[in-house]
Amino acid sequence: MNNRKIAFCIVLFMGTMSCGNAQPPNVIMLMADDLGWGDVGFNGNENIITPNLDTMAESGIRFTHFYAAAPLCSPTRASVLTGRSPFRQGIFAAHTGGMRPAEKTIAEVLKKEGYSTGFFGKWHLGWLEPDKVESRGIFSPPWHHGYDETFATKSAMPTWNPTKTPIGWKGWNHKGVPNSSPDKPWGSPYIENGKRVTENLDGDDSRVIMDRAIPFIEKSINEEKPFLATIWFHTPHEPVVAGPEYLAMYPNLSEEQKHFYGCITAMDEQIGRLKQFLNEKGIAENTILLFCSDNGPADPQVRSGAASAGPFRGHKHHMWEGGLRVPSLIEWPGHVDAGTTIDYQACTSDYFPTILDMLDIPVPKNVPLDGISLVPMLNGESTQREVPFAAGYQRLYKNTELYAFVDGQYKICNPEVGMDMMLFDLEADPTESKNLAEEMPELFAKMNAKLEAIKRSWRLSREGNDYQW
């Protein structure tokens, strides 16, 4: 395309054809942080206030079987941008590395096609300040990976007043400084186009992010360029804090639930603000909007009763469904059937090939991908995923090395540290209550062999097989 307007055609979800001379579609990738499957209204939570996400579900596609590539943040984010398992990239967990320069990202591909590219929010795929050396990770900012405009943080931020440590917070990033002052600076700053930001950082963090994303989109519109906007919220990752107006929306809940639900509602409000802007500018029907979470809900919020994995077992850091299965939506007015619920198994690695297929851009052939294009499924040409997918999580802490492999209705996984590999029938037993490994030994052995083959392929990739050094 190379910055020129083209005739764009796509087969719609129900098999009809729509063609026209128009600017290539815009793409917005939205991601929440630690949002559980059951933490949104469109998945049945009757207490949470998420009207804009619920409207997206009513006007687009809701996935019931959408998986993260890992049960925690950094690896999943790497899969979204590249279509490749994080194990191919050496990104096994959070804070343990950074995205390698040789990885081809969706931003790099679309930039070559004439798109404006912007990143806003939580990066978590490398340091953002070259001279700030830390014990873990490497300098690998989003502007090294195809993004023109950036407003990013290295990792998590408080969800209210993001540059200030919440009163009473004693977790990571505490640094041993007394918690009595609301003005104690947070350890990870916002970096905009390589420089620290000091203005417009108070209040709701999702609003702070959207205040930078919308001007980028408006600039792209004014320049008559298609755009890729990657907007990755910190919500509802801890420290979880909601502002007074959002706390007031939940008068009958516990204090922790008020903050947890309140910050999600604040994020939802900003998604509504974005959608209203797209409508006002007349580009909503030419914009592909994708939403998901990076993993299941965090253990502390699950134990307190604030967060929910819905009916599924487990949480973040687990290979149970509750750690991997996340809320997910696709909205593209006029191009996908409104109010469609799909049980097709999809995952975060599918974003890269799906977006390129939607835009009629060839997928790079020089490296193996783990994701598949979902366009055949959206067109009604495919009703069941034919390519199995695997997830993983590894770190030195407690000698953690966990895997899950899903092939149709069956799944094998060693879901927690210290547990053996198990076999489950997700169709008959979505809560993973009955281990079938002994009852179905041949299937169990076959699936383990397939997983081992995938792991060998992953190792070859990360040890240099895919890269030109």
Automatic annotation (TrEMBL):
The keyword Cell wall biogenesis/degradation does not apply. Residues 1-22 form the signal peptide. Residues 25-361 form the Sulfatase N-terminal domain. Its EC number is 3.1.6.1. Coiled coil: none annotated. It comes from the Bacteria. The keyword Methyltransferase does not apply. GO terms for molecular function: arylsulfatase activity; metal ion binding. It holds the Pfam family Sulfatase. InterPro entries: Alkaline_phosphatase_core_sf, Sulfatase, Sulfatase_CS, Sulfatase_N. Transmembrane segments: none annotated. It is an enzyme of class 3 (hydrolase). This is Arylsulfatase.
